[in-house]
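Page 42, continued from yesterday. The earlier attempt failed because a stray header line got pasted into the input along with the sequence. Redoing it now with the clean sequence only.
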Amino acid sequence: MNNEYLILLVHGIAYLAEAFILFWIGRAAYNLFHPKVDVENELVHVDNLAFSVSYVGYCIGVLLAIGSAIIGPSQGLWVDLMDIGIFGLLAIFLLNLSGITNDKLVLSKFNLHKEIIEDQNLGTGVIESANYIGSGLIILGAITGHSMDISGGILSAIVFWAVGQLLMVVVAKVYNAMTPYDVHEHIAKKNVAVGIGFAGAMLAIANLIRFGLSGDLHSWTESFTEVGFEVVIGLIFLPIARVLSDKILLPGRKLTDEIVNQEHPNSGAALIEAFAYVGGSVLITWVI
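This time it went through. Structure tokens are written below.
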């Protein structure tokens, strides 16, 4: 093994060690932001699936947030470690702030603590999980798209995160208006299928926002224009994807009937709907 490979190995171990430390901080931050939730009790003793799904979504969000600080060209080991530490901590804070924002604005009619911890509402857990993952994707785009100096990078990351979160809330309202049923009403009835479809729409839009935010910051106008363009495409695409789910992926069936008009809502059909949204958003980022 020559010196170049040895240096790369040492650097990789250092980055990985810092990532594990940040992940531990991310877990501790969850406890700090959710003091009424006993994580171990819900996961191990109560076997609360709704909470487990939500918590895993948070962990994926933390992973994406940490990744946002690691991805990019190296500027030297010590500069890299400093940047990863600063932007990793910022990303974890923004992710937890996203959780509070989404709880208040995306599922505004619910007491999420009651729905997930007391009622073990899996549909709510699925949506909260998607919100965390979606926020992680937005943070990934916001931080990988920051300006090169630290102070400018922190400012641009916060601004882009705030814009992304606002767009997520707007899209949630649009999705609820687009569907022929009230999302909140059916989630309250513990309809997991509705939660899965809604979660797919949120992840699809978050992925498009991430794509719009990625890349170096050249100007605020250019970045906002790119994000706006991606979101407009997403809003146009959502109803199209729903129709495609009916006509191509579920031929001979009505998606709404499968999800809300049956005694036992069809979660499998909802997964098809979610796939159509997410798969479509991936294709859009590939061709644009």
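Notes: The chain has a mean pLDDT of 87.
Reminder to self: strip header lines before submitting.
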